[in-house]
């Protein structure tokens, strides 16, 4: 499958009477995006704001971060099965607005939404301090259940991102990259000497606000399957989860999955990037066994030489990670896993809830329990009302001078387990 | 700014007194002298630090007169009041390595003066002391002096100035059981691809997290006589009396709660809730028995299926809680349950 990605660099976002993109500046009609967001009657209100890199702004509680894209050629549309009709994506031509994101925020759903600081020490840890953020703070209608609220906010974010992506349809991209994978036979013939490598992505599917959707299907209800790695670039996988902010994959990370991009970088040079395998992280033992068995089986059937496995979340999914690693290694396939650590605030504890000697090649996104002090910032988009309840915060979080004492856990994307960041630990 | 004051410890060989035949050389303080490898340190420090004294001691003397040598050397160091203490590097010299580790750890622990040493990873002193004192990994012989000093000197300066010390991979010290965050040059996914390519090619690679020896607990044999057994409930699902009176954290719990359920037959929305931040709390808050099944156990108590339900339950939040904390809670809870004559425990999670 061949997908041409056109990148359009956004230099600023401004509110305006009419929505358009001109000379790298995104002009947004507040009226239009509000109407798009409020198409869902479960949402009562939405307010929009712009957070720029370096500004003294804190966004919280953050739910999702989304990069606007538009499909300009080929089958399907962005977010198939969710916003666009179901159709296989990953071929043709897609434009992405680089340097910006749509960030959804609002009253808390579970305990686990995150913080994005646009400046200061917190900004060093979140990748979304470097993007121009169009933030939408959504308010729910009275009496709707938290999970309905979560869904309404999630979909509103996608609608707004797609609305903004559409503004780029007729533009000429600043940069273009072509991503192409081969069919199985074609790949073997074309690259007979190169090791056959796949990416095994574990999708958060613990349920109860820990969900991921693939073409609109709840990932709890999938068995492991294969994707062309270009499918994610059109939004085949989206986040629906509220696990700890530091190591959940916002939709932005799915769209820009770094393992996919870095394997493409080596494709045809040092390795043959065969495909992406997706599996889940269900909480029942039978599901864990079935999914890890199937993942290893698919790796074997594809005659792979090596895989990279990425995790999402921590604790319970550590067992899925280790089961996948053990079973894939047992097939004689070289495995590298990407995780993060909960080594305690002092760094002295065992980092994962499970371990095995087969996991001899580990990449870590850092210790999520590390404490940081986030100084008071001038402006809060959203609310600090729930800050002590976000996972990684405590009753002692809010200091008298307005600074926050928190674990990295609270910071959106800080210890991402697809290897999105440079943070690590030893 | 005043220069950082350093006291340097070396053996008889590096003081050019002699080899094995002089290994019984007793501890000696040379105030104002920079000796042997000290010159390399001094060059590396430039104007930031100076070696105010060198202590020389024979390797056999140190190890055969451990207590006396240690006490003498500690007294010498104390008198000099340095900002930082450096021992070695010892490379692969076994007795020298043990001496460096012993004295560096003692200076740090007993005098409160930060210390750094260096040696080859297979030196017996490494395993003994790498978790006690910063220990730079060096080559296995003195040809590696330059490289060793290039890492030990900057680390000594940081310690002397009280500056934060980075991760082992950055500073060059041996992993010491304390995980420290730092920023790599490449993002994680690119590091994963690099590591996989090395692994596929059969080339050496270094994992970023060596797997620990996992603590697995074998389950006890089944309880034979349930009808006379005292059963307790323990949960990591965060069920607490409404309002979370002991403020158990929603994640990374620092403590557990102990609550009396004498007379309680059912947990209701008005009386109990969950403090757990790792799952949607709606269903647990509606009916906490879903996580801590007191209602069912009361029925079983009445029906004579179990002897009795223990009047206390123990609870904490498993979400993101460090294994070391969980282990400490479990040891304490276990002792209390045993003291109360509990025969079996039902552990519920979420």
TrEMBL record, chain A:
UniProt keywords (A-Z) are: Pyruvate, Schiff base
Q: Does the keyword Lipid metabolism apply?
A: no
UniProt xrefs under Pfam families: Gly_reductase
InterPro entries xrefs? Gly/sarc/bet_Rdtase_B_asu/bsu, Gly_reductase_pB_sua/b
Q: Which residues carry this modification: Pyruvic acid (Cys)?
A: 242
The residues responsible for catalysis, as annotated, are 242
Gene Ontology MF terms: oxidoreductase activity, acting on X-H and Y-H to form an X-Y bond, with a disulfide as acceptor
User: Keyword Transmembrane helix, does the record have it?
Assistant: no
**What is the name attached to this protein's record?**
Glycine reductase
Q: Which organism is it from?
A: Muricomes intestini
TrEMBL record, chain B:
Q: What protein am I looking at?
A: Glycine reductase
Listed A to Z, the keywords are: Oxidoreductase, Selenocysteine
Source taxonomy lineage?
Answer: Bacteria, Bacillati, Bacillota, Clostridia, Lachnospirales
Q: Name one GO molecular function term.
A: oxidoreductase activity, acting on X-H and Y-H to form an X-Y bond, with a disulfide as acceptor
Q: Which Pfam families match?
A: GRDB (PF07355)
The organism named in the record is Muricomes intestini
Q: Which domain of life is it from?
A: Bacteria
């Amino acid at each position: 499958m061949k997908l041409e990605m056109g990148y359009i660099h956004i230099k600023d976002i401004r509110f305006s009477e009419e929505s358009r993109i001109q000379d790298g500046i995104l002009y947004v009609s507040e009226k239009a995006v509000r109407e798009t967001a409020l198409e869902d009657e479960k949402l009562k209100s939405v307010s929009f704001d712009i957070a720029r890199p370096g500004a003294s702004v804190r966004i919280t509680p953050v739910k999702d971060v989304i990069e606007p894209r538009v499909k300009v050629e080929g089958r399907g549309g962005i977010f198939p099965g969710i916003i666009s009709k179901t159709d296989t994506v990953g071929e043709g031509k897609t434009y992405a607005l680089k340097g910006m994101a749509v960030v959804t925020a609002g009253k808390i759903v579970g305990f686990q939404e995150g913080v994005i600081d646009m400046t200061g020490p917190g900004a060093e840890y979140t990748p979304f301090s470097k993007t121009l953020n169009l933030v939408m703070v959504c308010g729910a209608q009275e009496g709707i259940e938290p999970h309905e609220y979560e869904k309404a906010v999630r979909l509103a974010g996608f609608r707004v991102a797609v609305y903004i992506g559409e503004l780029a349809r007729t533009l000429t991209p600043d940069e273009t990259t072509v991503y192409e994978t081969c069919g199985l036979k074609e790949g073997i013939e074309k690259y007979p000497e190169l090791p056959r490598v796949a990416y095994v992505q574990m999708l958060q599917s613990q349920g109860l606000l820990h969900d991921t959707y693939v073409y609109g299907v709840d990932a709890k209800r999938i068995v492991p399957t294969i994707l062309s790695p270009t499918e994610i670039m059109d939004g085949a996988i989206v986040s629906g989860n509220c696990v700890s902010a530091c190591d959940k994959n916002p939709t932005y990370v799915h769209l820009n999955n770094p393992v996919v991009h870095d394997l493409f970088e080596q494709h045809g040079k040092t390795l043959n990037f065969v495909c992406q395998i997706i599996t889940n992280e269900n909480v029942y033992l039978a599901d864990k066994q079935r999914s890890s068995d199937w993942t290893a089986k698919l790796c074997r059937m594809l005659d792979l030489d090596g895989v990279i496995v990425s995790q999402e979340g921590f604790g319970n999914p550590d067992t899925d990670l280790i089961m996948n690693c053990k079973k894939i290694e047992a097939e004689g396939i070289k495995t590298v896993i990407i995780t993060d650590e909960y080594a305690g605030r002092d760094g002295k504890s065992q980092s994962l809830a499970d371990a095995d000697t087969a996991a001899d090649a580990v990449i870590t996104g850092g210790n999520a329990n590390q404490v940081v002090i986030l100084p008071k910032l001038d402006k809060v988009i959203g609310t600090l009302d729930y800050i002590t309840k976000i996972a990684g915060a405590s009753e002692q979080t809010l200091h008298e001078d307005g600074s926050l004492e928190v674990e990295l856990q609270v910071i959106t994307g800080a210890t991402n387990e697809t290897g999105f960041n440079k943070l690590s630990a030893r | 700014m005043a220069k950082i004051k350093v006291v340097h410890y070396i053996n008889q060989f590096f003081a050019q007194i002699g080899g094995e035949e002089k290994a019984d050389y007793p501890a000696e303080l040379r105030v104002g002298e920079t000796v042997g490898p000290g010159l390399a340190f001094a060059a590396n420090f430039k104007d930031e630090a100076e070696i105010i004294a060198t202590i020389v001691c024979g390797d056999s003397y140190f190890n055969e007169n451990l207590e006396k040598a240690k006490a003498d050397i500690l007294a010498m160091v104390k008198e000099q009041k340095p900002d930082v203490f450096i021992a070695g590097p010892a490379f692969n010299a076994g007795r020298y390595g043990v001496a460096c580790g012993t004295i560096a750890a003692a200076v740090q622990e007993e005098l409160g003066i930060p210390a750094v040493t260096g040696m080859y990873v297979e030196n017996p002193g490494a395993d003994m002391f790498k978790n006690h004192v910063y220990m730079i990994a060096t080559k296995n012989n003195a040809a590696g002096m330059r490289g060793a000093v290039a890492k030990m000197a900057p680390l000594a300066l940081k310690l002397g100035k009280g500056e934060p010390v980075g991760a082992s991979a950055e500073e060059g010290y041996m992993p010491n059981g304390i995980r420290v965050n730092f920023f790599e040059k490449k993002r994680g996914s690119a590091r994963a691809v690099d590591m996989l390519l090395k692994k596929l090619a059969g080339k050496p690679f270094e994992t970023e997290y060596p797997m620990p020896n996992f603590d697995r607990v074998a389950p006890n044999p089944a309880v034979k006589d349930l009808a006379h057994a005292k059963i307790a409930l323990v949960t990591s699902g965060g069920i607490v009396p409404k309002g979370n009176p002991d403020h158990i954290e929603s994640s990374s719990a620092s403590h557990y709660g102990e609550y009396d359920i004498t007379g309680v037959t059912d947990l209701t929305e008005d009386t109990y809730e969950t403090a757990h931040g790792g799952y949607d709390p709606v269903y647990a808050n509606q009916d906490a028995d879903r996580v801590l099944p007191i209602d069912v156990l009361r029925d079983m108590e009445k029906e004579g299926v179990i002897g009795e339900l223990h009047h206390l339950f123990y609870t904490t939040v498993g979400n993101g809680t460090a294994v070391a904390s969980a282990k400490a809670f479990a040891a304490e809870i276990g002792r209390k349950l045993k003291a109360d004559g509990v025969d079996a425990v039902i552990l519920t999670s979420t």
